[in-house]
From TrEMBL:
EC number: 3.1.3.-
Protein name: HAD family hydrolase
Species for this entry: Glycomyces rhizosphaerae
PROSITE patterns recorded: COF_1 (PS01228)
Keywords in alphabetical order: Hydrolase
InterPro entries xref list: HAD-like_sf, HAD-SF_hydro_IIB, HAD_sf
GO molecular function, one term: hydrolase activity
Gene3D superfamilies cross-referenced by the UniProt entry: 3.30.1240.10, HAD superfamily/HAD-like
EC class (word): hydrolase
SUPFAM superfamilies: HAD-like
Pfam families, sorted: Hydrolase_3 (PF08282)
Length: 282
């Protein structure tokens, strides 16, 4: 790959600097890439209102794939298109099964425009587009529609949670975890970042071979494996590293910008696909 047609990047921990800001170097790199004919798409667990909370980034994006691939968001028009959703009845059933293994679990449901969560989430997230309910049954009743179900355990890691529900019947829902952070995400069958990004690209007649992707967490792994070239961040979770073709520096070191600057300067992107064993760039 000499130059990609699409740059696809996770946001938190990847494109965004620590603290959720967008560095000047990253903005400059994205602007230069777009001026050179590349499209830039955010591929994130956030839903569209979460992307809208980044006004310094929006001018540099051509679109967003949200909720781990369940939503395509047209930033220019504000159109939200839900690709896959979860039946509320199935969500209730799966939540009941999870509670048997994780009795301390609390739930939230993202419906595309907001989130309804159990009261225990309030101290964790504040308000924003959240609505809070006293119990999980009320959460599902108020949400009315589910594009993603969030499961949180304050005293467990995401990996521990995933192991605890490994053999639970999730009704075909796709599950990912957040490493050390005690959160699981559940999406509709077949909805992941690779699915959402592939949908966005197919509609623009772009194949995986023309896409370069960046990520740092297990939910990024399908996208990193799908893209023609992909980079796990310097401090990425092992599942992301294993899925990617390469490594770059951390988000604190503007790792995404470093790669973009390189290919805009003529560096080729097609090296040894085992480069991900190398040390991240300084």
């Amino acid at each position: 790959m000499l130059k990609p047609l699409v740059i696809a990047a996770d946001l938190d921990g990847t494109l965004l600097a620590p603290g959720g800001t967008v560095s000047e170097r990253t903005r400059d790199a994205l602007a230069a890439a777009r001026a050179d004919g590349c499209a830039v798409v955010a591929v994130t667990a956030r839903t569209p209102y979460g992307v809208d909370m980044l006004p310094d980034l929006l001018p540099y994006l051509d679109g967003a794939v949200c909720a781990n691939g369940a939503i395509v968001y047209d930033i220019a028009t504000g159109r939200i298109r839900i690709l896959r959703s979860i039946r509320i009845s199935l969500g209730r059933k799966v939540a009941a099964a999870i509670v048997k293994r994780l009795p301390d679990a609390v739930f939230a449901v993202e419906n595309g425009t907001g989130i309804v969560g159990e009261e225990a989430y309030r101290a964790l997230v504040g308000s924003s587009n959240w609505e809070f309910a006293d119990d999980v049954e009320t959460v599902f009743k108020r949400a009315k529609r589910a594009v993603k179900i969030k499961v949180y355990c304050a005293d467990r890691s995401g990996e521990e949670m995933a192991a605890a529900v490994e053999d639970v019947d999730l009704g075909g829902l796709a599950m990912c975890h957040w490493g050390d952070f005690g959160m699981l995400d559940l999406n509709a069958r077949g909805a992941d970042k690779a699915f959402g990004l592939a949908t966005w690209c197919r509609e623009r007649k772009v194949g995986a071979e023309s896409v370069i992707a960046f990520g740092d967490m297990p939910n990024d792994a399908p996208m990193l494996a799908w893209a023609g070239r992909s980079y796990a961040m310097g401090d990425a979770h092992p599942e992301a590293v294993a899925a990617a073709t390469d490594r770059t520096a951390t988000n604190a070191e503007d790792g995404v910008a470093q790669i973009i600057e390189g290919f805009l300067n003529g560096d080729r992107l097609d090296g040894d696909v085992h480069d991900n064993d190398a040390t991240a760039a300084a």
